[in-house]
Design a protein that fits this description.
Blueprint (H helix, E strand, L loop, with lengths): L9 E6 L17 E5 L11 H6 L12 E5 L1 H9 L8 E4 L10 H5 L11 H10 L1 H4 L6 H9 L5 H10 L10 E6 L14 E3 L6 H4 L1 H12 L1
Parallel strand pairs: 1-2, 1-3, 3-4, 4-5, 5-6
């Protein structure tokens, strides 16, 4: 009788960045792990990031061991989630662990909210036109446009409001923070990264996927 040995895959719940979808993780391959992508709940006007993060809990099976992974805004949500669910590891990529790691220009808008001067449509257009800051190359233009346009109503403006008013000063337990040294949005010098990607930009989850996959496969093994 043949004996079969089944390896139990570790579960990672992943949240993409602001204005993006699960398409962002299309090149992610972490050995012995199953990546489950969480969907964006609709935020309410004036909602704090800590309260918004709690809306993701219903998508997580907390009865079994799991880890969290978030890119950019998704990482900030994971940081908040780590205070209400018991994750084995909290993996942040191109992100911030707390408000103190946000760039000054972002924190400044808590007091002078320039983003409120623009409509949701203009904010979406600005996000699309700023894709070079995020590190998305020309060939990713159509994909990025599709992701932005798939966001729920008023999602961009409400999310920016949550980020600029983020109150968290804590660092998640069992945190793995991976940051690119050429991130032009969430600057490398502002964060305390556990692991650095030498030529990684903000969109390194797409362009440095092989290096990140190798790193995470070792850390999750």
């Amino acid at each position: 009788m043949n004996a079969y040995i089944y390896r139990v895959l570790k579960t990672i719940y992943a949240i993409p960045g602001l204005g993006t979808t699960g398409k962002l993780f299309e090149y992610m391959r972490i050995a012995n792990c199953e990546v489950k992508i969480l969907q964006w709940p609709q935020p309410e006007s004036g909602m704090a990031l800590e309260h918004y993060a709690q809306l993701f809990v219903q998508q997580i099976d907390t009865s079994k061991p799991f880890s969290l992974l978030g890119v950019s805004f998704g990482g900030m949500i994971c940081s908040e989630l780590s205070h209400v669910v018991n994750a084995e590891k909290v993996i942040l990529i191109s992100s911030c662990k707390n408000k103190m790691e946000l760039p000054f220009i972002v924190r400044f808008q808590k007091y002078i909210p320039l983003y409120k001067w623009f409509s949701e449509n203009l904010l979406r257009q600005f996000a699309f036109n700023s894709r070079w800051i995020l590190g998305f190359e020309k060939e990713y233009k159509d994909v990025f446009s599709e992701m932005i346009n798939s966001m729920p109503k008023n999602y961009i403006s409400l999310s920016i409001g949550m980020i600029v008013n983020w109150a968290n000063t804590k660092t998640p337990k069992n945190c793995i923070h991976i940051q690119g040294k050429k991130d032009h949005l969430l600057l490398y010098r502002n964060v305390k990264a556990d692991h650095s990607i030498e030529n990684g930009g903000h969109a390194m989850i797409v362009y440095q996927a092989k290096e990140i996959n190798g790193l995470l496969s070792g850390l999750m093994g």
